[in-house]
Design a protein that fits this description.
Blueprint (H helix, E strand, L loop, with lengths): L1 H19 L6 H17 L2 H11 L13 E3 L2 E3 L1 H16 L3 E8 L4 E5 L2 E14 L2 E13 L6 E5 L6 H7 L11
Helix pairs in contact: 2-3, 3-4
């Protein structure tokens, strides 16, 4: 009887753990996040981009730890500088110098539960047009789901992310997952 109870408990535990990993069910949502950002770059303003980033950008959860600075390309910068950079990006896009002409989520690279919640690593191939030239790049995007709020946020992994900041963002990120 004890063996049967242990087996039932093990099956229930395994099933509930599998149900906790929701990433594969949210790929359409991730594409919507990306499309919304592209739409804001084309038609939004600086304040709309800031609201978008506060809502969906994972690193924005850590702004308070850095005197309300914003994390951009591996550096913490003041709000005024951040707003100025966003305005420059909007101008660059609207002048026709830069556009994202397509993006494609590749197969899920990793999906785990860690201390910050569920992480889902997906390589994203982005096709851009810069001053008339078409370029392709692929970066790993880490989609992070809070287990408390059940809300997803995004973190684009770039080589400019310092090991120290990454450790703060993801203290127990699995060492077997190689990011690029």
């Amino acid at each position: 009887m004890k063996k049967i109870c242990a087996l039932i408990f093990a099956l229930i535990s395994t099933t509930s753990f599998a149900q906790d990993l929701e990433c594969p069910n949210h790929l359409v949502l991730f594409k919507q996040f990306m499309q919304e950002e592209l739409d804001l770059l084309k038609h939004g303003d600086v304040q709309q981009l800031i609201k978008y980033n506060q809502k969906y950008n994972y690193s924005s959860r850590f702004n308070r730890l850095h005197n309300d600075q914003y994390y951009v390309n591996g550096k913490w910068i003041e709000r005024e500088v951040y707003e100025s950079r966003l305005a420059d990006v909007l101008d660059f896009v609207r002048e026709g110098n830069y556009s994202v002409t397509g993006f494609k989520l590749q197969p899920i690279k990793a999906n785990r539960l860690i201390s910050v919640g569920e992480i889902c690593v997906i390589p994203v191939e982005i096709q851009t047009r810069i001053s008339g030239d078409i370029e392709f790049s692929t970066n790993d995007w880490i989609f992070v789901r809070s287990l408390k709020s059940n809300k997803w946020r995004t973190f684009t992994y770039l080589e400019t992310v310092s090991a120290e900041d990454f450790k703060v963002f993801f203290p127990d990120f699995p060492s077997d997952i190689q990011l690029k």
